[in-house]
Amino acid sequence: MRFRGRSLSKERPVASLDLSYDAASGAYAGIAGAGVATSHDGLQGLTLREYLGYATRLNGGPTLDLGVTHAAYTEYYGGRSGTQYSEVYAGLAARSFTTRLSYSPSYFGSRTQTLYGEIGTAVQPARNWRLSAHAGLLTRVSGEATAASLRRPKYDWRLGLATAIRSFQVELAWSGVGPDAVRGDRSALVLALRRDF
Description:
The protein is mainly β. Helices cover 2% and strands 63% of the residues.
């Protein structure tokens, strides 16, 4: 499981389930959980994330998206103890372009306040195929940079190609972080299989 270009599952396979509700008013909410396949203990819990937001279209133009998310990570990611963090975000989405700015008062349980800006786009080069691209930048606003990954601004990127096979969405994506990444962060190919119910 990769988050902003970094592996949270030590590059092991992950299974996830996302339950969401979208109201006609534009309000939405959801909860998502993920487990990681370990070598000795089978499937272990990795993360549980809740989110709540509101989306509305601006006078026939882009869609404004406002919300908050909270994620908790188990000991598998955090070592001896789990960790958690919350973010508030605001974004705009057009037909094939999205942008979002997120603020966290305590990034991954640290004493560091962060801003994360991201842009993304998706196009259909052929029928039943989707090509997507993403770029993001994480920077410290204030607080002590206890983690090496927060001492300087970090950018991440992702390129993906997806297609539908029967009732499944299959995507192959290449993602990574900037050249000044901390040890253990490297680019990787990720194969994802998804089905909506």
